[in-house]
């Protein structure tokens, strides 16, 4: 049996993958630029410079790649919501599942942003994510208080 925390972590990772897929499919020409870079590595520089004005496979290949990234976006979102709902069911509190998913999403987004898009984050971003992860640690270490029925009757 998978715990609610694992479901929450997976939901956050899938949310980050879905966001990256959206950026690839709907954003600027990231896929075309990646294709051009790959084509330059596969062919010799001399061949590439002589035929630079010719049509390359990248001129049409980025369109099916964008469609595939769009499909990945919807698939990851569907699975992410499934895992998040399982995390809500298996975690001791909804706050714990939500914070775990959010923290996992932030960290995964940073890693994917660096790997795919070459993004960097300022020191203030890292301070914010550290505070978020500290809050996550506090939530994970706290135990839920159970109110007995007798205590509830005394208040009435």
Automatic annotation (TrEMBL):
Task: Give the matching SUPFAM superfamilies.
Answer: Multidrug resistance efflux transporter EmrE
Q: Which domain of life is it from?
A: Eukaryota
* InterPro entries reported for this sequence: EmrE-like, TMEM42
State the protein's name.
Answer: Transmembrane protein 42a
What is the organism field in this record? Gadus morhua (Atlantic cod)
The major lineage groups are: Eukaryota, Metazoa, Chordata, Craniata, Vertebrata
Question: Which gene underlies this protein?
Answer: TMEM42
């Amino acid at each position: 049996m998978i715990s609610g925390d694992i479901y929450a972590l997976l939901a956050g990772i899938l949310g980050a993958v879905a966001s990256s897929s959206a950026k690839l499919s709907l954003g600027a020409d990231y896929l075309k630029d990646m294709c051009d870079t790959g084509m330059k590595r596969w062919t010799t520089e001399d061949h590439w410079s002589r035929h630079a004005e010719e049509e390359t496979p990248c001129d049409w290949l980025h369109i099916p790649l964008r469609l595939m990234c769009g499909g990945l976006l919807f698939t990851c979102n569907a699975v992410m919501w499934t895992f998040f709902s399982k995390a809500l069911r298996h975690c001791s509190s909804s706050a714990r599942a939500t914070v775990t998913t959010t923290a996992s999403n932030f960290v995964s987004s940073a890693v994917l942003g660096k790997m795919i898009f070459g993004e960097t984050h300022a020191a203030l971003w890292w301070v914010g994510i550290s505070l978020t992860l500290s809050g996550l640690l506090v939530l994970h270490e706290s135990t839920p208080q159970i109110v007995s029925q007798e205590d509830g009757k005394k208040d009435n």
